[in-house]
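A protein record pairs a chain with a discrete description of its three-dimensional fold. The following entry can be read in just this way.
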Amino acid sequence: MSAQPEHDSPVRRLLAQPRGGPTVLRIVLGTHLRRLREASGITREAAGDAIRGSHAKISRLELGRVGYKERDVADLLTLYGVHDPLQREEFLTLAQHANNPGWWHQYSDVLPTWFETLLGLEEAASVIRTYEVQFVPGLLQTADYARAVTKLGHARASQDEIERRVRLRMRRQELLTRPHGPRLWAVIDEAALRRPLGGPEVMRAQIAHLLDISERPNVTLQVAPFRIGGLAAAGGPVTLLRFHESDLPDIVYLEQLTSALYLDKRPEVETYMVVMDRLCAAAETHADSVAFLRRLHAEL
């Protein structure tokens, strides 16, 4: 059965070079289990019965939204006709690793569960495309700017909590400087660059940071100036993530005030791909955006 791991299977390769930590492992394992179930002609309801759960639990497992019990994985493999000891061992090893905590676990006291998924996906991404209208993208913020943004969104938080959130954001940014880090393609609305969060000095340092990071070969910056009028995204921030791992579909991330949406159905993703392409076509080029940032830095 093609969905089962072979000697050079994606499961084996992923275990050898795990990018993205447990988030990605859960999604890949769920994808393989879904393929096995569908190839066996078994419904989610029947699979749920086999692990003493519901079809909703199977759906969450197949989407990689929850952790795995090895017993559940073993029972599903039996149900799907996977009896080869080596193949079963690979799946069970993947389930074990998928339950390991990511580096962000140490920040669990200030990290909502819906945001943990994004951190894992960013770690695994080959390309991150993002559009921001109100703030500089989190992956590009200085510590002082991030502190101002955090205070705005968590007005009642203690100073210690604020600093932990800022440290989490700085740790998150490290992926951009790794040897095989993702390519970041960011479109930033002029409104985000002119909104004086933290005061003039903080903004001046933030613009300087954008100028510095724009020189990195894996970073493309585009400014969407006021003069181009309305934009295809209708004012909403959008992030699209693409992956090396063939078992991971392109994903759209839409952040809300107290939650987030993760879209992976092809028609939805393609709609946002078109939106992002239009944004990039309308915005200034990377070179012109750097010139814009230099002028703005001189004004501050």
Summary: The two ends are 63 Å apart (CA to CA). The longest helix spans residues 21-40. Strands lie at 125-132, 183-189, 219-224, 238-243, 251-255, 260-263. Confidence is low (pLDDT under 50) at residues 1-7.
